[in-house]
Amino acid sequence: MGEFELIDRFFRRPVRRAALGVGDDCALLNIRPGMQLAVSTDLLVEGRHFLSTVDPARLGHKALAVNLSDLAACGAEPLAFTLSLSMPRPDERFLAPFAQGLLALADRHGIELVGGDTTAGPLTLGITVMGEVPPGQALRRSGARAGDVLWVSGFPGEARLALEVFRSTLSLSEDDFHAARRAMELPEPRVALGLALRGLATAAIDVSDGLLGDLGHVLRASGVGATLRLADFPRRPLLARQPVAVQRMALLTGGDDYELLFTAPEAAGPAVQAAAAQAGVPVQAIGRITATPGLQALDEAGAPLDLAGWAAFDHFKS
């Protein structure tokens, strides 16, 4: 199977929103008048970001989900995406389910594949997503202000449990392992929540490299600090059954959650809850933004927690 047959068999689809999609040197996108283009790129490398044993359909889903999560954190509506695919050789047993998982998620969010590239090499997936957002309404990292409440969506920390099982540092029951692995391999991008938070959230980021590290980006960009309350973090039984030390590690440094971490004025609390209900996503207040730079965490009993040595994922250090 050659490059162009691979594209035709697995990735060519009729365009719906784009003016021109797969097959030419460039795609052509129609942007609604008065909208800005939001663009983000992520790279997934076998052995670094995913295991060789991952279900190809789940890999296709996740490859697009992590990019849609970036649009969600910006409050942008998905529009189109490109796929760059490197693999040792064309393999229909991989490509068919991979394309199915990828395109099923694309259809759910009304986003279409409009181009990309394929080549021989180590299994590597590069996706660039494009969305649109009205001028001045994009959620950014730099808008947090002292007194804002810090919120998180969903249930962060669960995906980290699966990683620790793969690292042989943690044992889970079969049911718990399957649930944790599902959290790691099938994240749900919070696009609807990101759209609903436009005009409410003052800053936002998606949790991809660990909550502490990603929150740090917001604090530095905004020139503020924060206090976290571990007692307020949402926990389902999957995480709550683990020792407290494991819970803290997963909640504070676990990556692959792709939940939204955002700030909003205290008075906006009811509106935030209404927006979350509209999006069908649970949210929880877990802290507050402070005027003094720096990050403090209070443990489950309200005592200061020493954060020395706690680090987020770093692609060149971890």
UniProtKB/TrEMBL annotation:
<dbReference type="InterPro" id="IPR036676">
    <property type="entry name" value="PurM-like_C_sf"/>
</dbReference>
<dbReference type="GO" id="GO:0009229">
    <property type="term" value="P:thiamine diphosphate biosynthetic process"/>
</dbReference>
<dbReference type="Pfam" id="PF02769">
    <property type="entry name" value="AIRS_C"/>
</dbReference>
<feature type="binding site">
    <location>
        <position position="209"/>
    </location>
    <ligand>
        <name>Mg(2+) 5</name>
    </ligand>
</feature>
<feature type="binding site">
    <location>
        <position position="117"/>
    </location>
    <ligand>
        <name>Mg(2+) 1</name>
    </ligand>
</feature>
<feature type="binding site">
    <location>
        <position position="206"/>
    </location>
    <ligand>
        <name>Mg(2+) 3</name>
    </ligand>
</feature>
<keyword id="KW-0479">Metal-binding</keyword>
<dbReference type="GO" id="GO:0009228">
    <property type="term" value="P:thiamine biosynthetic process"/>
</dbReference>
<feature type="binding site">
    <location>
        <position position="70"/>
    </location>
    <ligand>
        <name>Mg(2+) 4</name>
    </ligand>
</feature>
<keyword id="KW-0460">Magnesium</keyword>
<keyword id="KW-0784">Thiamine biosynthesis</keyword>
<feature type="binding site">
    <location>
        <position position="42"/>
    </location>
    <ligand>
        <name>Mg(2+) 2</name>
    </ligand>
</feature>
<feature type="domain" description="PurM-like C-terminal">
    <location>
        <begin position="145"/>
        <end position="296"/>
    </location>
</feature>
<feature type="binding site">
    <location>
        <begin position="116"/>
        <end position="117"/>
    </location>
    <ligand>
        <name>ATP</name>
    </ligand>
</feature>
<feature type="binding site">
    <location>
        <position position="49"/>
    </location>
    <ligand>
        <name>substrate</name>
    </ligand>
</feature>
<dbReference type="GO" id="GO:0000287">
    <property type="term" value="F:magnesium ion binding"/>
</dbReference>
<dbReference type="GO" id="GO:0005524">
    <property type="term" value="F:ATP binding"/>
</dbReference>
<feature type="binding site">
    <location>
        <position position="208"/>
    </location>
    <ligand>
        <name>ATP</name>
    </ligand>
</feature>
<feature type="binding site">
    <location>
        <position position="41"/>
    </location>
    <ligand>
        <name>Mg(2+) 1</name>
    </ligand>
</feature>
<keyword id="KW-0808">Transferase</keyword>
<feature type="binding site">
    <location>
        <position position="25"/>
    </location>
    <ligand>
        <name>Mg(2+) 3</name>
    </ligand>
</feature>
<feature type="binding site">
    <location>
        <position position="313"/>
    </location>
    <ligand>
        <name>substrate</name>
    </ligand>
</feature>
<feature type="binding site">
    <location>
        <position position="70"/>
    </location>
    <ligand>
        <name>Mg(2+) 3</name>
    </ligand>
</feature>
<feature type="binding site">
    <location>
        <position position="25"/>
    </location>
    <ligand>
        <name>Mg(2+) 4</name>
    </ligand>
</feature>
<dbReference type="InterPro" id="IPR016188">
    <property type="entry name" value="PurM-like_N"/>
</dbReference>
<dbReference type="Pfam" id="PF00586">
    <property type="entry name" value="AIRS"/>
</dbReference>
<feature type="domain" description="PurM-like N-terminal">
    <location>
        <begin position="23"/>
        <end position="133"/>
    </location>
</feature>
<dbReference type="InterPro" id="IPR036921">
    <property type="entry name" value="PurM-like_N_sf"/>
</dbReference>
<dbReference type="InterPro" id="IPR010918">
    <property type="entry name" value="PurM-like_C_dom"/>
</dbReference>
<dbReference type="GO" id="GO:0009030">
    <property type="term" value="F:thiamine-phosphate kinase activity"/>
</dbReference>
<comment type="function">
    <text>Catalyzes the ATP-dependent phosphorylation of thiamine-monophosphate (TMP) to form thiamine-pyrophosphate (TPP), the active form of vitamin B1.</text>
</comment>
<dbReference type="InterPro" id="IPR006283">
    <property type="entry name" value="ThiL-like"/>
</dbReference>
<feature type="binding site">
    <location>
        <position position="40"/>
    </location>
    <ligand>
        <name>Mg(2+) 4</name>
    </ligand>
</feature>
<feature type="binding site">
    <location>
        <position position="42"/>
    </location>
    <ligand>
        <name>Mg(2+) 1</name>
    </ligand>
</feature>
<keyword id="KW-0067">ATP-binding</keyword>
<feature type="binding site">
    <location>
        <position position="70"/>
    </location>
    <ligand>
        <name>Mg(2+) 2</name>
    </ligand>
</feature>
<keyword id="KW-0418">Kinase</keyword>
<feature type="binding site">
    <location>
        <position position="256"/>
    </location>
    <ligand>
        <name>substrate</name>
    </ligand>
</feature>
<comment type="pathway">
    <text>Cofactor biosynthesis; thiamine diphosphate biosynthesis; thiamine diphosphate from thiamine phosphate: step 1/1.</text>
</comment>
<keyword id="KW-0547">Nucleotide-binding</keyword>
<feature type="binding site">
    <location>
        <position position="141"/>
    </location>
    <ligand>
        <name>ATP</name>
    </ligand>
</feature>
<comment type="similarity">
    <text>Belongs to the thiamine-monophosphate kinase family.</text>
</comment>
